Amino acid sequence: MMVERMVLDELWELFQRVVPPAPSRPQGGGRRRYGDREVLAAIIFVATAGCTWRQLPPVFGPSGPTAHRRFTEWTAARVWAKLHRVILDELGSRGDLDWSRCAIDSVNMRALRGI
Fold first, then answer.
1. Where is the Insertion element IS402-like domain (predicted)?
2. Is the CB of residue 37 less than 8 Å from the CB of residue 3?
3. Would 102 be classed as within a structural domain?
4. How many structural domains compose the chain?
């Protein structure tokens, strides 16, 4: 129930377009791999709640270190950038995105040094 509230069906459909397939595992021992939707919900919770990976409530299924490991894998695979692009494309194709109200005035933007 918590997973479906954190990752709505529409987001899940878009996410499935960009997430890489799970690596194949040799036959035999070990724990089952948590589903991508469960892990995505855990990642969203950590990002929005401001807690640490180790503080992740057990209701999500995967442990904090497991969620963090998958977050790192997906970051390396550029999943977040791809998802961002897919969401923008989807909103744009439905007419739900109005770029005319997104003007940025460079006078109000501060540059950071040393980055």
1. 9-84
2. yes
3. no
4. 1
- Cβ atoms of 83 and 13 within 8 Å: the answer is no
Q: Give the pair of three-digit tokens for residue 90.
A: 């989807």
pTM of the model: 0.76
Q: Does 26 reside within a domain?
A: no
What sign has the CA pseudo-torsion 43, 49, 52, 54?
negative
106 within some domain? no
The fraction of the chain above a pLDDT of 70, given in percent, is 77
Q: Name the residue range of residue 76's domain.
A: 2-20+33-96
Residues 37 and 12: beta-carbon distance below 8 Å: yes
Three-state SS across 99-113? HHHCCCCHHHCCCCC
Q: What is the pLDDT of residues 26-77, one digit of tens each?
A: 666 677 789 999 999 999 999 999 899 999 999 989 999 999 999 999 999 9
Specify if 12 maps to a domain. Answer: yes
Average pLDDT of the residues in 8-22? 93
Q: Closest Cα to residue 15, out of 43, 54, 55?
A: 43
Mean per-residue pLDDT of the chain: 84
